[in-house]
Amino acid sequence: MRTNFIVAGVGVVAMLGASACTTTDPYSSTPGRNNTATGAIAGALGGAVLGYLTNTNNSEQGRKNALIGAGVGALGGAAVGQYMDRQQRAMEAELSGTGVGVARQGDNLVLRMPSDVTFATNQSTIDPRFNSTLADVANVLKQYDRSIVDVVGHTDSSGGDTINQPLSERRALSVANALISNGVMRERLYVAGVSSRNPVASNDTPDGRSQNRRVEILIRPLTS
Length: 224
Description:
- With 224 residues, the chain is an alpha+beta fold.
- The chain has helices at 10-14, 35-46, 60-69, 78-95, 115-118, 131-143, 161-181, 206-212, and strands spanning 101-105, 108-114, 147-154, 189-193, 214-221.
- It has one domain (10-221): CATH 3.30.1330.60.
- A 5-stranded mixed β-sheet has the order 1-2-5-3-4.
């Protein structure tokens, strides 16, 4: 498999944990929508450098073109919100009790996968016990194929970027490869690692560092 892997800029991942995108806790299962924040998400993404897995074009539009060319129809209007509503409910049903958080940010979904249930300490090989969870995620993604998927690895601040940057990249790529091996079209994906640059909690406490060690999957509707 050709993997065109480029580390994303900081701006692209800031949206993944941004509380401004919702009107309640950003990682609850039922946050309210904030249309202004949804626009900010699109703007941040548009200016980022991404590591796409599509063979056709290393760009956001190239990814969309590849999917549309493969017969995946784009969404528009009220259909966007309704489609993502259904996908959210399906993800919540599949991931209940797994330790994976499902959050709504505007018309996007964020899955947060804590490293302590996904990987062994300082490793990037997926814990075999988590393979079935990723298979469940892939099954929902295949059912709702009119969406694109961004996989981003994060670490805490221990150890510094020399260790954490490649670790965050490898972990994100492991999750992406697991989705692909379970039938998700690679043209839907981009992969990035951002080390410790986007914490969601304080790195000064063990609990905060645990929250920061994670892989996040951002699921966005495919629109023209």
